[in-house]
Design goal:
By secondary structure, this protein is of the alpha/beta class. The protein contains 20 helices and 19 strands.
Amino acid sequence: MHRLLEDQIQQYLGSLEALPPEWRRFLVAVSETYEAAERDRQTLVQDQVTNTQALLEANAQMRKAIPDLFFQLDQDSIIRDYKPGSMHDVYVPLLDPIGKPLYSFLPTEVAEQFRTALQQLSLKQPMLSFSHSLVLDGETYFYEVRLVQLSHHQAIAIIRDITLQKRTEAELTAAKETAIREATRSEEANLAKSQFLAKMSHELRTPLNAILGFSQLMNRDPNLNADQKDYLNTINQSGKHLLDVINEILDLAKIEAGRTTLNEQPFHLPRLLNSVRAMLAMKATSKGLEFRLELDPELPVQVEADEQKLRQVLINLLGNAIKFTAQGWICLAVKTLSTSENGRILVQFQIQDTGCGINETETDNLFDPFVQSLKRTDNQEGTGLGLTISQQFVQLMGGMITVQSTVGQGTLFQFTIPLKLVRESTSLAQTPLVIVGLAPDQPNHHILVVEDRKTNRDLLMTLLATVGFTVTAVTQGEEAIAAWQTIQPDFIWMDLQMPILDGLGATQAIRQQERSQGVIHPVPIVVLTASAFVADEAQVLEMGCNGLVRKPYTESIIFETMARHLGVIYTYADEEIPTTSPHLGRSFPSDDPTQNPILNQFQSMPPAWQVQLKQAVYEADGEEIHQLVQQLPPLCGELGTAIVQWLDGFEFETMIAMLDLESESDAE
């Protein structure tokens, strides 16, 4: 029996044995129940002690794990409880801060921030945060404080050290500002380079425009003798070669400036490949090399892509292959790989040679600007930009040029690009005939030429006057405005870069006056520019111009542009149709024209095409000749090959003689 119950029984009831049996049983049961309750109480007490100890240990571990500093503060900013953080030695320089006000160790302005925040805490705003800094031992530390209300009179302050974060942010900000400054400097440098190239483009193209333009005009003189024509052809070809070099450098500059775009148009892929072969086969043959063209039977015929850029890439790669191959063969292989879901087909181009090869150490920088292989020191002509431009063009078209080479055995360049399939055949545009005048019964159109450079001004005036236009010329923008008011021209050719007032400024002034006067049909104004960068066509149109023509220009572009805006009709040199004559003995065994397949093929072409070819040959216009060759049907393949070979060797006199291009008027 429980000791306390036994003492109570003896005090009030006497001996337990003196009690009736039922009372004894009852008291024993009560005693057992009491003892069980006592055991339960002791167990609960032990569990409470154990749990309390566990909670204290967990709290201690949590306080250690959390790097933040905790204060329990009353409304007077006195510390009632405290948990140190990782910044303890810096933030709280007291061994026992409990019972101490914040003013005792924090700067006055920081303690005042705490007091103000504590006063702002309420049931509607139970949590506030702010940040502050401390300067300790010459170093600045940054802290973030969060106050959480516990009751009307107490709150918990959680203080976190954010010094590292602030310093990192400051470093990132400084790095960002440095990057922005560097980017600005780089952009300024690129702008300066673009401005320099634009200026140089203008300065180089302007005299070239005069050289090529006047040589074309002189070629129209029927009284020229053979030597004079030869001199003019040399001038023309040299000028075009210089223009090619300039364009190559400017192509690279445009690529670097991100201004090169694709001009995707439908074209005949096999015809392009055959024209490239025709252009280069003569050069390969002259070196004793075999030129191979291997076309996949599944190759598409009509595709859409940037034909000019693809042609330039192939000519660059094949030209290098021929240049650096002394014996053996050159091969252009083109095959279809797969067709994508978006209507494009993957076509692989391979250019392989048996030349000197390239060292493996040089392939990494082979596509860098102005780089040429050291193995090819015997052939160092060129700018060293061909491969760079080719790689950039191929990347723009969605591919990448790769190279495999073995020194002494040869080199393989290859790339794969997607070409859009064209379901319907697209015919090639016809090159216009040679314009000799204006058709009768048309208005007398008055043309205003605005050009500050005398050579360019004289060239355009002479060209327009030759066919019958009335021409007035001025030298700068303000004179253009005055002339427009005085003569009311039907068309204005406006140079872009001029002193005092440039072409765009003059155009805007004219357009503004037209609007104020209520002019219904504004005068067409087309800009002429020798710049490769300044004149963006969209910008020119936005400023009120009707179009843009770049120098050096061709006669056909000038006349086509004016016909488009004025609706003029020209007369052509249709009467200058070549006739047969016996100039055939230089390259063929028989003087009988019927035995000459090339002449037969030439004479089977339409008269208009023959006239166009004659004019292009007399003007030594290689680009025009290539366009005419592309128009040849498959049955005239020998004619196309012969023309391209003669053109490649600048054998214009041979072409004139072999195709009997000398008319009676020319012979006289």
